[in-house]
Amino acid sequence: MVFPMKSYLSIDAGGTFLKSAILSSQGEVFKESVFLTESFSESSKEQIFRAFRNVMDNALSFVATNKMELSGVGVAFPGPFDIEKATPLMQHKFQNLYGINLRDVFSSMPGFPSNIPIKFVHDANAVLIGELWKGNAQGYSNAAVITLGTGLGFAISEEGTVLQNKIGGPYLSIFQLPYREGILEDYASKRGFIRIYQQLTSKISCNGIKVSDIGEWAANGDRNSLLTFLKVGEILGDSLKNILNERKIECLLFGGQISKSFHFMEEGLRTKLKNTTCLQKIDVVKNIDYAAFWGAVSNVLQND
Q: Member of which family (predicted)?
């Protein structure tokens, strides 16, 4: 008797989009299953639920068409988020899901298989878990990942295990570290890049400018754009060197969409971290689009 292949749905829930894919138990991402839909994170809970319903319908259709068995669901979700209770605790994005048990919501969706595990993990932790399993942190006991996007995420591992706080979020938060007249996230996130670019160019307004625009201009040799990335690299290196030394971090990786322009930041970062002797590797994650997928599914497999 031939049994259907076990497959796993991985969801990366972002403030702008929900990304999903079907993975095998070995971490293979079935590229035809990759799906993207608007998350409506600032809309009503009903609209957000419809977005997740679209993700679920797409996954169930792919699994059925390819004669697979859906054996689990892993969800990477931004925080704060109570992992054990499966409840978002955010006041900014997904605020209309505050305190709602998403595990119950998913399992009650029509057509959802009964009695399969649904596991949640903080999105920054998911990236590092994925890199330890399938990516550029393989073979390193003490690793860290910085995720650069709308916010500033950070996750660390010790002896190969990703550390978590009491509700399952990252063990250490760096976004609120004091920096100049504000916090680190004011200088090393989407708004940080735009702020520094605005200061360098003396523009009155940078409305409509995206970090990806600054990255394109840097690629074309624009001096102020290149300086923006260099300065953010220096800021991160300065702010994190003590933490990296204290935690004996051997491998430091960068994730998030902004990290596609990491090479423009690298010189400034390495200059500030040159005396961090524990560091053996500084790089981007193996696959910016798949790292959270791997981490969310690995989290399910550990309990499968």
A: Belongs to the ROK (NagC/XylR) family.
pLDDT digits (tens, 9 = 90+) for 242-266: 999 999 999 999 998 899 999 999 9
pTM: 0.91
Q: What is the number of residues in the chain? A: 304
For residue 149, the model assigns a pLDDT of: 86
Percent of the chain with pLDDT over 70: 98
Can you state the angle between helices 190-201 and 211-219, rounded to 10 degrees?
60
Burial of 25 (0-12, 13-18, 19+ CB in 10 A): middle
CB 61 within 8 A of CB 7: no
CA–CA separation, 27 and 50 (whole Å): 27
Count of Cβ atoms closer than 10 Å to residue 181 Cβ:
6
| Distance spanning both ends of the chain, measured CA to CA | 23
Just give the CATH number of 5-123+291-301.
Answer: 3.30.420.40
Instruction: Determine the number of helices (DSSP H) and then strands (DSSP E) in the chain.
Output: 8, 14
Q: Identify the CA nearest to 257 among candidates 214, 222, 228, 224.
A: 214
What's the CA gap between 94 and 42, in Å, rounded?
Answer: 6
Q: Where are the domains of the chain?
A: 5-123+291-301, 136-284
Which residues in the chain belong to E strands, given as ranges? 5-13, 17-23, 35-38, 68-77, 81-82, 87-88, 118-122, 143-148, 152-158, 161-162, 178-179, 182-183, 251-255, 281-284
The C-alpha R_g of the chain, in whole angstroms, comes to 20
Mean pLDDT for the stretch of residues 2-12: 84
The CATH homologous superfamily for domain 136-284 is: ATPase, nucleotide binding domain (3.30.420.40)
Residue found by looking up tokens 């591992």 in the block = 157
Q: In this structure, how many other beta carbons lie within 10 angstroms of the beta carbon of residue 125?
A: 30
Closest CA to 174 of 199, 198, 135, 148: 148
